[in-house]
Design a protein that fits this description.
Length: 94
């Protein structure tokens, strides 16, 4: 922690702590990044789920075309998948 002399005021020395200033700057950066990411997180989650649904449908289509029924989801898994994709589409229709 380095202490630098800034000046004198009424015969008293006023000291500025460089470490305190750098710590406040790091805190401000951390607050900015966390605020930005907290507003971006809901958008990223829905975007990732959309990409995942395309990947899942592509795998289901290729398994269906190849008659590989062991790679297809069960009826319960299919209903869960459809529920997730439908709830994803209703996120943007408020």
């Amino acid at each position: 922690m380095e202490i630098t002399l800034v000046g004198s005021l009424l015969g008293q020395y006023v000291y500025a702590l460089d470490a305190l200033v750098s710590r406040l700057t790091q805190t401000a950066r951390l607050l900015f990044v966390s605020s930005f990411l907290s507003s971006l997180a809901p958008l990223l989650a829905s975007f990732i789920m959309t990409l995942w649904s395309f990947m899942a449908s592509s795998r289901m289509r290729s398994a269906s075309l190849a008659n590989d029924f062991m790679r297809l989801p069960t009826p319960y898994q299919t209903s869960m998948l459809v529920g997730w994709v439908c709830s994803l589409s209703f996120m943007f229709t408020d």
